[in-house]
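in:
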């Protein structure tokens, strides 16, 4: 892992043998304010991945105009485990970061509102809390998915698309993917393919989103959904569609598989879902790829609104306003400068972080 002038500011490795906890926390940059970033739980999470995600949060928060820097935590563990065991790991992490006051945890892959409640009980700070604790449960209300839909609406004309009748494929039909599908369907889109960790399905005539969400929330894999054609997870990328949404793990779009992509617009619901090689291939082949820290900022915008005492309606309004404006500015900058959208967005966000850093005492 290498750093640059932005960070990382701190890399903290955590081991609690009694609790069975192995974790890492990266605070990337706090020039704009205390870092907000999710706690990810996965068996293969690495220091490098957490550092990259923390940088993505720095850029995301700056691009969204939030008074927060970027950070991230990763717990090396399978999130599918007994509730008591999961609670023990989460509380152990919370105690380990009690003095790391510049980092505010939030939910991420493998964690949820309950986990944030446990952290708050231990150290008094987290975002994405349950409603009963005064939180705005961002996964429950679909904050990130709402932002993804707004970004798609702004970007669609640039990709030569109308959302009415647009075919959507979603990699990772979890909290982000489900809500993105729902909000896009309300704008006239049709979900034709989706995947989860156990398989993928396809139906060119359209999948029934509400029934599919109920199926998933019952704990059943997509491959068991009646009436849809089961396909290989790796073939989802080649499904004929107009909009392809990666909403799973990092680096699922690579130089080795991106050539199969048949979409006109990629809206990055996951963090760092495409390698640099894949981004350049899409740009060369006139597939518009909207960067993660522009398109999926809805969750952290919601978290910041919660942290500062706002309401759910204020969170939705802020998400729409900021993502709509930042998507438009990113696309305008990319077109004017002949840049990849990610390059344009990164310049926008870095300029804001660097300006904030100039106000800090050396």
């Amino acid at each position: 892992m290498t750093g640059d002038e932005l960070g990382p500011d701190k890399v903290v490795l955590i081991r609690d043998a009694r609790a069975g906890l192995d974790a890492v926390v990266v605070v990337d940059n706090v020039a704009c304010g205390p870092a907000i970033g999710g706690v990810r739980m996965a068996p293969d999470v690495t220091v490098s991945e957490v550092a990259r995600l923390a940088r993505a949060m720095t850029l995301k928060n700056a691009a969204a105009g939030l008074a927060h820097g970027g950070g991230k935590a990763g717990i090396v563990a399978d999130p599918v485990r007994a509730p008591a065991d999961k609670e023990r790991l989460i509380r152990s992490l919370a105690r380990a970061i009690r003095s790391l006051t510049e980092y505010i945890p939030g939910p991420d892959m493998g964690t949820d509102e309950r986990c944030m409640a446990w952290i708050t009980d231990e150290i008094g700070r987290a975002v994405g809390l349950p409603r009963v604790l005064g939180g705005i449960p961002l996964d429950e209300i679909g904050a990130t998915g709402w932002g993804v839909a707004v970004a798609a609406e702004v970007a669609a004309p640039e990709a030569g698309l109308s959302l009415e009748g647009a075919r959507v494929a979603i990699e990772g039909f979890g909290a982000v993917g489900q809500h993105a599908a729902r909000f896009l369907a309300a704008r006239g889109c049709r979900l034709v393919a989706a995947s989860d960790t156990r398989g993928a399905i396809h139906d060119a005539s359209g999948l029934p989103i509400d029934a599919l969400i109920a199926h998933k929330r019952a704990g059943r894999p997509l491959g068991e959904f009646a009436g849809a054609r089961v396909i290989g997870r790796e073939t989802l990328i080649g499904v004929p569609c107009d909009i392809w949404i990666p909403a799973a793990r990092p680096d699922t779009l690579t130089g080795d598989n991106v050539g199969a992509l048949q979409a006109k617009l990629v809206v990055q619901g996951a963090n760092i879902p495409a390698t640099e090689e894949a981004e350049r291939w899409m740009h060369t082949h006139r597939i518009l790829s909207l960067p993660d820290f522009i398109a999926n900022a809805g969750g952290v915008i919601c978290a910041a609104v919660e942290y500062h005492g706002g309401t759910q309606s204020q969170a939705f309004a802020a998400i729409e306003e900021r993502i709509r404006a930042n998507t438009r500015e990113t696309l305008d900058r990319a077109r004017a400068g002949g840049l990849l959208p990610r390059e344009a967005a990164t310049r926008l966000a870095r300029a804001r972080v660097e300006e904030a850093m100039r106000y800090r005492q050396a």
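note: The longest helix spans residues 312-337.
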